[in-house]
Amino acid sequence: MNSSLSNDEEEGFKYFFGVSKKTFDYICSLVREDLVSRPPSGLINIEGRLLSVEKQVAIALRRLASGQSTVSQVTWRFIEALEERAKHHLKWPDSNRMEEIKSKLEEAFGLPNCCGAIDGTHIIMTLPTFKHQTIGCDLEDNYSMLLQGIVDHEMRFLDIVTGWPGGMTVSRLLKCSGFFKLCEGGQRLNENVRTLSGGVEIREYLVGGVGYPLLPWLITPYESNGLPASISAFNAVHGAARSLAVTAFSQLKGTWRILNKVMWRPDKRKLQASSWYVVYFTI
């Protein structure tokens, strides 16, 4: 941080952090050795570098100066405002954009007319105050919430579904989603049919993992031992394309590390927050 401040900047600094810049620098000198010598593994920024002592002190002082309730209120006001103003970034592509996506996916993986990849992840919650229900527990016996997303070749989210309990299968989650209803009603993944050599027609589709159902618009890998080489090769290509969604969720949680922690409870705001993280990630 800048070592010299104007009078106005000094006043603003003290108002924001609760101490003068001189006192701030002194506090940093007092705690520097401890903060540098014992850095928790989680204190890294988005670029993967350890947060500086000055940034760690600034974060702590700001929280102490404002109070947790103020921090919480400001955070939720920000989330609500940005979710409303930025939600246009999370939308299903128009025809021209979809043709570009399909072209890029075919170029990368050799999958003609593929429109994206679908996958899901769990967001762990504390147990709700109401009676424990097993449907909320995932396979690792954590109380969690499912977040499903569809991504394009750039790992940008095109559609999300969230708020459903972690004990649901991804197949069931898909069938409960508005996206499923749109696809079944011919309003999604039902535009240009691709005709290959030999007259074979391929409609628009997504690629998904073995947990998803095989549908006319959702292609899953073959499951069997001793598959022919050609089928194994298809599975490899399919898996590479599907990994776009897996990687997108990994990057999402890497950027917003709160998603890797236990969220307090699955109330309306937590559902809103999980949606907001995805919206902001697409900007």
UniProtKB/TrEMBL annotation:
Please tell me the species this chain comes from: Prunus dulcis
Q: Name one GO molecular function term.
A: chromatin binding
UniProt subcellular location: Nucleus
- What family does the entry list? Belongs to the HARBI1 family.
* Cofactor needs: a divalent metal cation
Q: What is this protein called?
A: DDE Tnp4 domain-containing protein
Can you give the residue ranges of the DDE Tnp4 domain?
118-262
Record keywords, A-Z: Hydrolase, Metal-binding, Nuclease, Nucleus
Q: Name one GO cellular component term.
A: PRC1 complex
